[in-house]
Design goal:
Its main location: nucleus. One of its GO terms (molecular function) is NAD+ poly-ADP-ribosyltransferase activity. This is Poly [ADP-ribose] polymerase. This protein is an alpha+beta fold and 1059 residues long. It has 5 domains: 237 residues, Ankyrin repeat-containing domain (Serine Threonine Protein Phosphatase 5, Tetratricopeptide repeat), CATH 1.25.40; 247 residues, no CATH class; 158 residues, 3-Layer(aba) Sandwich (Leucine Aminopeptidase, subunit E, domain 1); 174 residues, Leucine Aminopeptidase, subunit E, domain 1 (3-Layer(aba) Sandwich), CATH 3.40.220.10; 169 residues, Phosphoenolpyruvate Carboxykinase, domain 3. The chain contains 30 helices and 40 strands. It is elongated.
């Protein structure tokens, strides 16, 4: 260190002497006539005296550093002379440079030591020297980063505006220069990584530091940090090493650098497709993936084949390489599927790409009634869900650059959705915001070049399959640069360098971004092919398939057979025998499972469930991430392929909740019917095949039966047929088939109460006892639509109970003329009906009737019916309830009990002097109603995170009390006593107010319910409100009145009889 200090002092003295002499001579200029002679003398003095002194007293490194400064003035270090004459201007500049270097030497020492005041003072006075290396060749930023001075690092980058990627220089002896010096060519990031300063590493990368830049010995900052566990872990989490190749090695160069070094193409991707009617992605078969891969490996001077034919299952399919779109069956959008390659376009095909995003959810997003294949631009309009948007030029560059630099995540502000900050997961190709209110999928499509003009094309959606195009590849860009086909200001965008990152790319490296997965990122997938050729961690071999067992033994060789025999001998009855492979098989392990077919469907399903559970749990314990199953049981055993497929898929779905991983079912190519069954079960087609579609499907839910039927609603036999007053076609069809009696009854009821939620008429000529016409309004908003369906089902159930009926025929309301979202309507309808049947313990027969021409609607009903889970709902009744075996629901509360005194006290406090005596207080024990109320209460608390239950009063005539106790506060009578704060059921915390509605009977007795009411989130109501506004649960007068709109929202706990 002493010698270094001496070296610094010698250099400073030498430079100071030169400054002193030059300053003295400058003061003489202009005073004497022979100025040029003075300049020549000064030049000679510097050459003969000071340079000779420098040669004798300075180290070679300092001497070369000083020579480098003088070289700007044509100084020849070998001859030790200036090759051109000094001028007055030359001397002025030389003096200025030497003074700058003196200041830089002090600043460099201060930076090394962390002296902030000296460094800041230097930057303010000499801002142009911010990136100038010291005599050691290192920069100010390198020094402060190396010695962990984080505040100075931030100052130099943010205030000083230094370049984060400036590299050190070499001032060693010219004849002894060697590439062995690791500091030469290194950056501040090299130093921070080498020293293990993680905070500085993150900061520099946040501000554009290139972690793939190399120094004089070809080391990257990543290389320098591999000996530090914290730096190694950071890059392992930050960078994406591979998609499909199973490697954990941290990459050491960018993708453009990688493909520059390799002649052969690299295959590292997954080919996937997403039906336009589904929110899940599925992997293509190995054959299809291979064809797609080869379709994009083309020389830049060759015309691209823009459409390829695939044969999958029984349907012919075409894939547009231009649109990345799979087409089936008459090119209808609902039969199409989007295609993507989850991997790098540059690494796999050496082509540049256009990135696109598809929103699955957005607070104001709208859903089109039918799928569309239109590609949209990023404009500030209402977001259309399930549609692709092209990223604009700036955002596209950011994604391309992030992929080139092998980033796992990138966060960008999207200005077209109010500058929302979105994090893109470049591994799984999904995105979401921090609040998880915005999310969706990501993909790229290739960029193309016109074969005619040789110019890049900007919009794939305007290209036809017959257009002569080729890929916009890296080799094209090189040639176009030489031929001046691309403007010089656009060439830089193709280099994808990691500079000027601050204003565009938001790197929050404090924690790894939390991504929400949409659809199926850990896939349940079905493919056609050979199980032994599938790239997966584990393949499953059943003891029941001698063919597969021998096949895997042949491929695996002697070592596999020996290992299996040894394990089997150890324990022949273990459920899974796990044998690691040695590279002869594409999987990492083979799982041998002991399974035998069974003629009994229940035993068959149970055995498959155990098999799946054992395999997935074993794979999870051994840290495997993907499994391939054969179609076990679908061979020559007489098992139902449909039942096997259904059981397999459902059990896998259940297991993946605890052990997420990729599951593939591999089906032999000569078994298309088995392939179709598995494909149906995972919903990849969005609809069932016409040939296998039955005309009815039913399932048991507890004691109830839910049935889906293709047919005519007017031909159904049931106690009740449901109609809708909002569907003119349905209403007229029912009335026309039912006859004049029904028409007159409907018109009379509507005239008497136009606000009625339900109008009940006789069955007339139909095969039913009653027709319920319910008021229901379609809505494009998914949340409002769901709630309206829930309310519709509730009203149907309540009124069916009140009439003592046990069978219903339900049309597919909303799925025809209203063009509502079929999946939302059907799923809500099926799930809500199932919940009602279970929780109320009803032994009903409910039929959903779908018109024969609405095949997609029928298929959706069948799909939702099959997907019902069997989990029971379990609640307990209050401890004050009395046991009873006679189905009574009214129990007198004894006056001496605390229960009685509590109800009486609350009533007295609220009523004041408006009553004389309480005759009776009865507890209402309607278990079915109470269970519904508790279920609703649980949902309210889960959603609002607070208890919003209130004890309120509801006065009514004696004639209404029995109906209420048996069937709840039925909204069918809403509006009878006014609608000032909404058309619902009215409650009040003021018993005196409710007293006004409790009309006396002939004995002078009045009746008032004490109710438990869930007010939830409430809002001021008005007479125009037929239901609560979206986001609210009730309406109010702002004081004591509360109006509910759901029958399970209140429970009549007590009935007070008084005078």
């Amino acid at each position: 260190m002493a010698s270094e200090n001496n070296d610094v002092q010698s250099l400073k003295q030498c430079i100071q002497l030169m400054v002193t002499v030059i300053s003295a001579n400058i003061s003489s200029f202009g005073k004497k006539a022979n100025e040029q002679q003075l300049l020549n003398d000064l030049q000679n003095t510097i050459e003969k005296t000071f340079i000779e002194k420098a040669n004798s007293s300075l180290s070679s490194q300092c001497r070369n550093y000083l020579s480098d400064i003088l070289n700007r003035y044509n100084y020849d270090a070998e001859d030790q002379v200036f090759s051109t004459k000094f001028t007055r201007e030359t001397v002025d500049r030389l003096l200025h440079d030497l003074q700058d270097i003196l200041a830089l030497i002090d600043a460099y020492q201060a930076a090394w030591n962390g002296n902030e005041s000296i460094v800041k003072d230097f930057i303010e006075k000499y801002p142009t020297l911010i990136d100038k290396p010291s005599f050691y060749g290192t920069t100010l930023l390198y020094s402060v980063a190396r010695n962990n001075h984080i505040n100075l690092v931030k100052y130099l980058v943010e205030i000083g505006k230094c370049s984060v990627n400036v590299q050190n220089e070499d001032y060693s002896e010219r004849s002894k220069k060697s590439s062995a010096n690791a500091a030469v060519g290194s950056t501040a990031l090299h130093a921070a990584c080498y020293q293990g300063h993680l905070q500085i590493v993150k900061y520099l990368i946040q501000h554009g530091a290139d972690y793939f830049i190399t120094n004089a010995i070809s080391e990257t900052p990543i290389d320098n940090g591999l000996t530090k566990p914290n730096i190694q872990k950071f890059f392992a989490d930050f960078l994406l090493s591979t998609y499909s190749r199973g490697s954990d090695i941290i990459p050491k160069r960018s993708i453009l650098e990688e493909i520059e070094r390799k002649q052969e193409y690299i295959i590292d991707c997954f080919w996937e497709y997403k039906p336009t009617t589904d929110n899940r992605w599925f992997t293509f078969s190995p054959d299809a993936s291979s064809r797609l891969q080869q379709s994009l490996i083309v020389d830049s001077d060759k015309i691209l084949i823009t459409e390829i034919d695939l044969k999958a299952s029984r349907d012919s399919q075409k894939i547009s390489i231009i649109q990345f779109l799979l087409k089936r069956k008459n090119d209808q959008p609902e039969n199409a599927a989007w295609v993507r390659c989850r991997g790098s376009s540059l690494l796999n095909f050496r082509c540049y790409s256009q990135w696109q995003i598809l929103f699955i959810k957005h607070p104001t997003g709208e859903i089109k009634p039918s799928p569309t294949i239109e590609i949209l631009d990023m404009k500030p309009t209402k977001i259309r869900l399930n549609s692709w948007y092209n990223m604009d030029k700036k955002k596209n560059f950011l994604l391309e650059r992030a992929m080139n630099y092998r980033r796992k995540y990138i966060t960008i502000n999207l200005d077209f959705i109010n500058n929302e900050q979105i994090t893109f997961d470049l591994e799984n190709f999904i995105f979401n915001n921090q609040q998880d209110t915005v999310g969706g999928f990501l993909r790229w499509v290739p960029k193309f070049v016109s074969c005619a003009t040789k110019l890049p094309l900007t919009n794939n959606s305007k290209l036809s399959a017959t257009t002569d195009i080729t890929l916009l590849t890296t080799s094209y860009v090189k040639q176009a640069k030489r031929d001046n086909l691309i403007p010089s200001d656009e060439i830089d965008q193709y280099s994808l360098k990691s500079d000027n990152i601050l204003n565009d790319d938001i790197l929050d490296l404090s924690d790894k971004p939390v991504m929400k997965e949409y659809g199926s990122n850990k896939f349940i997938n079905v493919i056609q092919g050979n199980l032994l050729e599938v790239k997966t961690d584990v393949i499953v071999i059943s003891s029941s398939s001698q063919y597969l067992f021998e096949s895997v033994m042949d491929v695996g060789g002697k070592s596999l057979r020996i290992a299996y025999n040894a394990r089997h001998k150890q324990n022949a009855h273990q459920p899974v025998i796990s044998i690691p492979t040695d590279g002869k098989i594409t999987s990492k392990a083979v799982y041998f499972v002991d399974w035998q077919p069974n003629d009994n469907p229940k035993l068959l399903c149970r055995s498959i469930q155990h098999l799946v559970s054992n395999v997935i749990e074993t794979a999870a314990s051994e840290n495997y991430k993907s499994i391939a199953f054969p179609a076990i049981g679908c061979g020559h055993y007489g098992c139902s392929a449909s039942l096997v497929a259904q059981t397999f898929v459902k059990q896998v779905e259940k297991e993946l909740i605890n052990h997420p991983m990729m599951i593939s079912f591999v089906i032999q190519k000569d078994r298309p019917e088995v392939y179709d069954e598995f494909l149906q079960q995972i919903g990849s087609d969005g609809q069932k095949l016409e040939a296998s579609t039955p005309k009815r499907m039913l399932i048991k839910v507890g004691e109830a039966t839910l049935e889906i039927i293709k047919g005519d609603i007017t031909k159904q036999k049931a106690h009740v047929i449901i109609g809708s007053s909002s569907s003119e076609n349905l209403r007229l069809a029912l009335i026309d088939a039912a006859g004049t009696q029904v028409e007159n009854a409907y018109n009379d009821a509507y005239r008497d109460n136009p606000n009625a939620i339900i109008i009940t008429t006789p069955g007339g000529n139909l095969k039913c006892q009653k027709i319920f016409f319910l008021k229901w309004e379609p809505n494009k908003n998914p949340d409002i639509l769901r709630q309206s369906i829930v309310d519709l089902i509730w009203n149907v159930i309540q009124n069916t109970i009140s009439h003592g009926f046990t069978s219903i025929a339900f049309p597919a309301i909303g799925c025809g003329e209203h063009s509502c979202a079929v999946d939302i309507v059907v799923k809500t309808m099926i799930r809500e009906m199932k919940q009602q049947m279970q929780s109320r313990r009803l032994a009903w027969h409910v039929k959903f009737i779908v018109q024969p021409n609405l095949r997609d609607v029928y298929d959706e009903f069948c799909k939702q019916l099959l997907s019902l889970n069997k989990e029971p709902i379990d609640f307990q009744v209050p401890t004050t309830w009395e046991r009873d075996d006679e189905n009574n629901i009214r129990f007198s509360v004894l006056p001496k009990t605390n229960e009685y005194k509590m109800i009486k006290h609350g009533f007295h406090q609220s009523m004041g002097n408006k009553y004389r005596e309480i005759i009776n207080i009865e507890r209402i024990q309607n278990e079915r109603w109470f269970m519904q109320y508790l279920a609703h209460s649980r949902d309210f608390y889960k959603r609002l995170n607070e208890n919003t239950e209130k004890q309120l009063y509801h006065g009514c005539p004696e004639s209404a009390t029995i109906a209420i106790m048996e069937d709840c506060f039925n909204r069918s009578f809403a509006g009878v006593h006014g609608t000032a704060y909404g058309v619902g059921v009215y409650f009040s915390s003021n018993a005196a107010y409710s007293h006004g509605f409790a009309k006396a009977n002939s004995k002078g007795e009045r009746f008032m319910f004490v109710a438990r009411v869930l007010i939830g989130k409430t809002i001021q109501g008005n007479s125009s409100m037929k239901t609560r506004p979206l986001g609210f649960d009730s309406t109010t007068d702002g004081n004591h009145i509360f109006v509910t709109y759901h029958d399970a929202q209140a429970y009549a706990e007590y009935l007070i009889t008084y005078k």
